[in-house]
Every structure is written in structure tokens, then in C-alpha cells.
Amino acid sequence: MPVLADNQLVGTLPVIPLEPNQLNLFPSVTPTPARRAEVLVMSQEALLKWKAQIFDYQHKVRESQAS
């Protein structure tokens, strides 16, 4: 896979012809690159703590659903 700059799109969708009665949900959408924040919003430590809290919560939910 080629290496792309931050402002380039990754991959393209193949053109697939529509079925006779199928509607086109995105008739004229032009993809644009996402903007990146100049400064990080949270520290690495805060992000890891947040991810661990989500993991713990999801783990508890899955355990309670298995019972």
C-alpha cells in the first residue's frame, strides 16, 4: 500500500452500477480530507486511563450478559 501524506484520501470506492430500482444515497458527494488538530487535546496518560475505563466497563457488561 502506498504511503500517503496526511491530507490525502486513503483508498477509493469502486464504481458499482445501480440496480434498476435502487436509489443512490450519495449522488454527488466529493470526499474531502479531514482536518487535524495542531495540538493534542489530552495527554497520553489521560487517553490510556480513559481507554482502560472503557475496557473495564465493557468487560463488566459482557460478563453480566453472559450470566
The chain-level mean pLDDT equals: 78
- Cα(first) to Cα(last) distance is 44 Å
The outline comes out as: flat
Low-confidence stretches: none
Number of helices: 1
Helix content: 25-40%
Order of helices and strands: H
The proportion of strand residues reads under 5%
In total, the number of strands is: 0
Q: By helix and strand content, what is the structural category?
A: mainly alpha
Radius of gyration: 21 Å
Give a short account of the largest sheet: none
Written description of the protein model:
With 67 residues, the chain is mainly α. It has one helix at 44-66.
List its salient traits:
mainly alpha
Summarize the structure in short.
With 67 residues, the protein is an all-alpha fold. The protein has 1 helix and no strands.
Secondary structure elements and pairings:
Blueprint: H1 44-66
